[in-house]
C-alpha cells in the first residue's frame, strides 16, 4: 500500500509568533525563494517557515491510529478488485466503542478510518453508488459503519479522520466512472443522488468536472457533512490501475475540505507528507520546513513533493534549488499486525517493537499513524487489545516522570531557562544567539536513560545540531548528540547514567531557537555490557571499524555510519569480530544486529563464542568451538535486527566469526546479564539452538510444543505467572493454554504440550539456573535437537544446552 504524494492542501495561515529581532522575514507556512536569494537568505527563510494552526494542532497529537476495515477483512486480502459481493461485509459483533476505548487507553489522540479503500466499496450508505454497505444484507441494509466509528471516536474524545481512496477499482470496471474519458461539465456539488436526495451542508460548490471527479466530490461532501467534526482527510497515492488514466481535480477537492472542515489537515503532500516508508521510521534529521520547485502562489492548497522526494537528507543541501519553502511535516504510518487488514493468525508486534516504533517516529519529529485492524467479527482481536494496553501503560509510566521538571534550570546565554522545564509547550527558552547552553540541577543523583528536547515550532524549526551532557561529579561528559529537533526529539542512551546535573548545548541553528522543553527520563533499558567496550576485528575496509558495533547505534543502513566491515573483496578466511567486557560477567543473552540496507545475506553461516580467556584468532570456527572453556553456538540462518542468542554462562570475551571467505559486517552487538524473572510475557529461547519455544497448533489442546526460528508471533510468546510456592504457570499468549506435561507423566521423554489450565502440579514450573523444571516430576524442559520443529519433552538434567533456556521479556 505505497503512500505516494497525491493529496490536497494546507491552510495558508500565518501563526502569530514574534520573529527574532534581527529577522527581516515574516513567518508563514509558505515563503518564496527567488533565484537571487543567497544560501544564507534561504536558510534564514527556512527558519521562519511555520505551521498553520491546523498543522500545529495535528503535530501536538503525536500519536494517531489507522483502522483498515472493509471487504478485504472478510476476503483475507490486502487489495480488493472492485467485484466484491456486498454481503461479504457482515460483522457479527461490531463494537466500535471497543475500538475507540482501546485506542484512547493506549494514548492515541486521533483515529482515521477507511471509508473507501481501492476496491471502491463505501462503508456507509452513500447516495452515489450501489457498491456500499447499503447493498449488504448486514442489518438489512440499514447499517452505517462510518457512523458507528465516528460516534464512538467522538464519544471517547478522539479526533476523527477519514481515508477516501482516489483510486477506485469498482468504478474502473466496464460502465464505471473511473477513467471513462467523460467530458467535464458544469455541476453543483452536492448533486442529486441515486435516491433522489442530496446531502445538506453549509455550502455548495460550482465545479466543471468529469464523471469520476463529480462522484468523488459528492462522496467527500457526504463524509464531511454527515459525521461531525473531521480533523484529517487521507488521500492515498497508491495506484493499482496501471495504464488506466484518470486525472484528479485537486483544486476542487481542497476547496471542499477547506470550506466544510476548515480545521482538518490533508495527507498526501499538501498539509502532510509521507515519511517514505511504512515501517514508522523517520529520518535522523527530519525537517518540517522543506524546499520545493514551482510557484509559491497557492502552494499551501495543492499537493507538492519536496526536492529530494523520499531521500535521506532533505535539509540545507537542497535549499539552493528551491523556488519556495513550505511547512510539510512527516506522518509515519506503520502496522501493529503484519497486514493493513486483519488476517487470521497474524498477531501484533511485541511491546519492545512498539517501544522502538515510538522512538523512531514520535521521537524523530514525526506523528505516528499506527494501523490496528479489527477482525471479521468487528472487534479488535484480544491480543491486539492487550498489546495496546501494555503500550499505553508503558508510555504513561516511562514518560510520566520527568526529572528535569523538578530541577532548577539556569542559563548564562540569555532567555528564561525555566521555560524549558515548566511543562508548558507554548513557553520557550531562547538564547541570545544561535548557540547556547541550558543547565538543569536535578537536586540529587538521578538515573537518566533518555533525554527529550522540543522546539516551539510555532516560531519555526531551527536547531541543526545539539548535544546533551551529564555531570560526573568533577566534569561534564557528553552523553549524546544529534542534529535536528523539531516538535519532539527523543534520545535514548545505550546505558543509563546516574548524575545530579544535565546540560543541553545548542551547537548550531538556522536562527535563534525556541526550546520548549528539555526533559530527563529514567528509561527502562537494561545495561548493555558491550557498549563502548574495546572491540577489534580481523581486518577493516571502508572505514567500518570494530568500534561501530558497540557504539549504541543499531541502525542497519551503511549511510548511518555505524556498521563494521572487514576486507573487501573478501580475501581472508573466517573473518572475526570480538569485544572485551573488561571482566567476567554473567551473560543471559547477546543481540546481533545485521545490516538492513543490503548484503544481509552475508551474515548467514556464522558462530558466536564466549570465553573467560582471550581467543586464538587464527583458529577456524570449528577449532574455536572445540577449545576447552569456550562456549559456542553455530547459526546457519540469516541474522536479523536483532537475532537474540542465549548464552547462560559467564564470560569476558565475546566473538562473532564468519565461516569461509566472506565479508563480516555488524550493525551492533549487545550483551546482557540474565533477566530477573517477574510476572510478564517472555520469549523462551534454547541456548543450544537459539530458536524459540513455539506453539505450532493454534488453540488445539494436546499439541506438543516445538522450537522454531525466532519471529514476533504470539505463538512464541509465553506469559509467566508466579504461584505462592515460587513456581510459575506458563501460558501461551496465542492460545491461552498452559504448558503441561502430557497426562501428568513423571517419565523421561514424556511430551510437553499445551492444555487447558488446571493449576495442576504438571502445569507448574520452577525456573532456576537456566532450566525450566516440572514440579511434579523434577525433570527439565528439553528440546530434541537443533532444527526447526524439534519437539519438547521432559528429561533428567544432563547439563546440555538443549536443556538451557534464556527468557527475554516482551510484554507486561
Would you give an account of this structure?
The chain has ten helices and 37 strands. The strands form ten sheets. It has an eight-stranded parallel β-sheet. Strands 14, 15, 16, 17, 18 and 19 form a six-stranded antiparallel β-sheet that branches. With 812 residues, it is of the alpha+beta class. The protein is globular, with a radius of gyration of 29 Å. It is 13% helix and 29% strand. The model is unreliable at 2-23 (pLDDT under 50). The chain folds into four domains: 57-165 and 265-282 and 331-397, TIM Barrel (Alpha-Beta Barrel), CATH 3.20.20; 403-521, Sandwich (Jelly Rolls); 535-672, Galactose-binding domain-like (Jelly Rolls); 680-811, Trefoil (Acidic Fibroblast Growth Factor, subunit A) (Trefoil). The longest helix has 18 residues, at 382-399.
Label this structure with key terms.
single chain; alpha+beta; TIM Barrel; 8-stranded parallel sheet; 6-stranded antiparallel sheet; 37 strands; 29% strand; globular; disordered N terminus; signal; metal ion binding; hydrolase
Q: Which class do the helix and strand fractions yield?
A: alpha+beta
The overall pLDDT, averaged over residues, is: 93
Stretches with pLDDT under 50, minimum 5 residues: 2-23
Question: So what's the CATH class of the largest domain?
Answer: Alpha Beta
Helices and strands in order, then pairings?
Elements: E1 30-32, H1 39-46, H2 53-61, E2 63-67, H3 71-75, H4 96-105, E3 110-116, H5 145-155, E4 159-164, E5 185-189, E6 205-209, H6 211-226, E7 232-234, H7 250-260, E8 265-267, E9 273-274, E10 289-292, E11 324-327, E12 330-335, H8 351-360, E13 367-371, H9 382-399, E14 408-410, E15 436-455, E16 463-471, E17 476-482, E18 489-509, E19 515-521, E20 535-537, E21 576-593, E22 606-611, H10 621-625, E23 631-635, E24 643-658, E25 668-672, E26 680-686, E27 692-694, E28 706-708, E29 718-722, E30 728-732, E31 738-741, E32 752-755, E33 765-768, E34 771-774, E35 780-783, E36 792-795, E37 805-811
Parallel strand pairs: 2-3, 2-13, 3-4, 4-7, 7-8, 9-12, 12-13
Antiparallel strand pairs: 1-11, 5-6, 10-11, 14-15, 15-18, 15-19, 16-17, 16-18, 20-21, 21-24, 21-25, 22-23, 22-24, 26-29, 26-37, 27-28, 29-30, 31-32, 33-34, 35-36
Helix pairs in contact: 4-5, 6-7
Enzyme class: hydrolase
Organism: Longispora fulva
GO molecular function: alpha-L-fucosidase activity; metal ion binding
Amino acid at each position: 500500500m505505497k503512500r505516494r504524494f497525491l493529496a490536497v492542501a494546507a491552510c495558508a495561515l500565518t501563526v502569530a509568533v514574534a520573529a527574532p529581532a534581527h529577522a527581516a522575514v515574516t513567518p508563514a507556512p509558505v515563503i518564496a525563494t527567488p533565484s537571487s536569494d543567497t544560501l544564507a537568505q534561504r536558510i534564514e527563510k527556512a527558519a521562519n517557515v511555520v505551521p498553520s494552526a491546523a498543522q500545529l494542532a495535528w503535530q501536538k497529537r503525536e500519536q494517531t491510529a489507522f483502522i483498515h476495515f472493509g471487504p478485504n477483512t472478510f476476503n483475507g486480502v490486502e487489495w480488493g478488485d472492485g467485484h466484491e459481493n456486498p454481503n461479504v461485509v457482515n460483522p457479527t459483533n461490531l463494537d466500535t466503542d471497543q475500538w475507540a476505548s482501546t485506542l484512547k487507553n493506549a494514548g492515541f489522540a486521533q483515529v482515521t478510518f477507511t471509508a473507501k479503500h481501492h476496491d471502491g466499496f463505501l462503508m456507509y450508505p452513500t447516495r452515489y453508488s450501489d457498491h456500499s454497505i447499503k447493498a449488504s444484507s448486514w442489518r438489512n441494509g440499514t447499517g452505517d459503519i462510518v457512523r458507528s466509528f465516528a460516534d464512538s471516536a467522538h464519544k471517547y474524545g478522539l479526533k476523527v479522520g477519514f481515508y477516501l481512496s482516489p483510486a477506485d477499482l469498482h468504478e474502473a470496471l466496464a460502465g464505471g466512472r473511473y477513467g471513462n474519458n467523460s467530458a467535464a461539465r458544469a455541476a453543483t456539488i452536492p448533486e442529486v443522488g441515486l435516491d433522489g436526495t442530496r446531502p445538506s451542508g453549509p455550502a455548495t460548490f460550482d465545479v466543471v468536472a468529469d464523471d469520476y471527479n463529480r462522484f468523488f466530490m459528492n462522496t467527500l461532501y457526504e463524509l464531511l457533512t454527515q459525521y461531525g467534526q473531521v480533523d484529517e482527510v487521507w488521500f492515498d497515492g497508491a495506484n493499482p490501475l496501471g495504464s488506466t488514466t484518470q486525472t484528479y481535480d485537486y483544486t476542487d477537492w481542497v476547496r471542499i475540505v477547506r470550506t466544510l472542515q476548515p480545521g482538518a489537515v490533508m495527507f498526501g503532500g499538501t498539509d502532510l507528507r509521507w515519511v517514505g516508508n511504512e515501517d514508522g521510521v523517520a529520518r535522523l534529521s527530519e525537517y518540517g520546513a522543506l524546499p520545493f520547485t514551482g510557484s509559491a502562489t497557492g502552494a499551501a492548497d495543492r499537493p507538492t513533493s519536496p526536492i529530494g522526494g523520499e531521500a535521506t537528507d532533505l535539509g540545507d543541501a537542497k535549499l539552493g534549488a528551491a523556488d519556495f519553502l513550505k511547512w510539510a511535516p512527516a506522518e509515519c504510518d506503520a502496522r501493529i499486525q503484519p497486514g493493513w487488514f486483519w488476517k487470521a493468525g497474524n498477531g501484533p508486534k511485541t511491546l519492545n517493537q512498539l517501544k522502538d516504533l515510538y522512538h523512531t517516529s514520535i521521537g524523530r519529529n514525526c506523528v505516528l499513524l499506527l494501523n490496528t485492524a479489527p477482525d471479521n467479527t468487528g472487534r479488535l482481536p484480544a491480543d491486539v487489545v492487550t498489546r495496546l494496553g501494555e503500550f499505553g501503560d508503558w508510555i504513561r509510566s516511562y514518560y510520566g516522570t520527568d526529572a528535569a521538571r523538578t530541577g532548577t534550570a539556569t542559563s548564562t546565554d540569555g532567555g528564561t531557562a525555566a521555560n524549558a522545564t515548566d511543562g508548558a509547550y507554548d513557553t520557550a527558552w531562547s538564547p541570545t544567539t544561535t548557540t547556547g547552553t541550558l543547565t538543569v540541577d536535578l537536586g540529587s543523583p538521578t538515573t537518566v536513560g533518555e533525554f527529550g528536547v522540543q522546539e516551539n515550532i510555532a516560531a519555526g524549526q531551527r536547531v541543526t545540531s545539539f548535544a546533551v551532557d551529564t555531570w560526573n561529579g568533577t566534569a561534564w561528559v557528553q552523553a549524546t548528540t544529534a542534529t535536528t529537533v523539531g516538535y519532539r526529539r527523543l534520545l535514548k542512551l545505550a546505558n543509563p547514567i546516574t548524575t545530579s546535573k544535565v546540560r543541553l548545548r545548542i551547537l548550531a541553528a538556522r536562527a535563534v531557537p525556541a526550546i520548549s522543553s528539555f526533559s530527563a527520563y529514567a528509561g527502562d533499558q537494561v545495561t548493555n555490557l558491550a557498549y563502548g567496550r574495546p572491540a577489534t576485528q580481523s581486518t577493516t575496509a571502508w572505514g567500518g571499524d570494530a568500534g561501530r558495533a558497540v557504539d549504541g547505534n543499531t541502525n542497519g543502513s551503511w549511510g548511518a555510519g555505524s556498521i563494521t566491515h572487514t576486507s573487501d573483496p573478501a580475501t581472508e578466511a573466517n573473518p572475526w569480530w570480538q569485544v572485551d567486557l573488561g571482566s567476567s560477567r554473567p551473560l543471559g543473552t547477546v543481540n546481533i544486529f545485521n545490516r538492513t540496507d543490503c548484503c544481509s545475506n552475508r551474515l548467514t553461516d556464522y558462530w558466536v563464542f564466549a570465553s573467560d580467556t582471550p581467543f586464538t584468532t587464527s583458529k577456524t570456527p570449528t577449532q574455536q568451538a572445540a577449545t576447552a572453556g569456550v562456549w559456542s553456538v553455530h547459526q546457519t540462518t540469516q541474522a536479523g535486527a536483532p537475532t537474540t542468542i542465549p548464552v547462560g554462562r559467564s564470560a569476558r570475551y565475546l566473538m562473532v566469526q564468519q565461516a569461509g571467505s566472506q565479508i563480516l559486517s555488524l550493525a551492533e552487538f549487545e550483551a546482557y546479564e540474565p533477566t530477573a524473572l517477574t510476572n510478564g510475557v517472555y520469549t523462551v529461547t534454547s541456548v543450544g539452538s537459539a530458536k524459540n519455544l513455539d506453539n505450532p497448533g493454534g488453540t488445539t489442546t494436546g499439541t506438543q510444543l516445538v522450537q522454531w526460528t525466532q519471529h514476533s508471533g504470539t505463538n512464541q510468546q509465553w506469559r509467566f505467572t508466579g504461584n505462592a510456592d515460587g513456581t510459575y504457570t506458563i501460558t501461551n499468549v496465542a492460545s491461552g493454554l498452559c504448558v503441561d506435561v502430557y497426562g501428568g507423566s513423571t517419565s523421561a521423554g514424556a511430551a510437553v504440550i499445551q492444555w487447558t489450565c488446571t493449576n495442576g502440579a504438571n502445569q507448574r514450573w520452577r525456573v532456576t539456573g537456566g532450566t525450566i523444571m516440572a514440579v511434579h516430576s523434577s525433570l527439565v524442559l528439553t528440546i530434541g535437537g537443533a532444527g526447526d520443529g524439534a519437539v519438547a519433552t521432559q528429561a533428567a538434567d544432563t547439563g546440555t544446552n538443549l536443556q538451557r533456556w534464556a527468557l527475554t521479556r516482551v510484554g507486561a
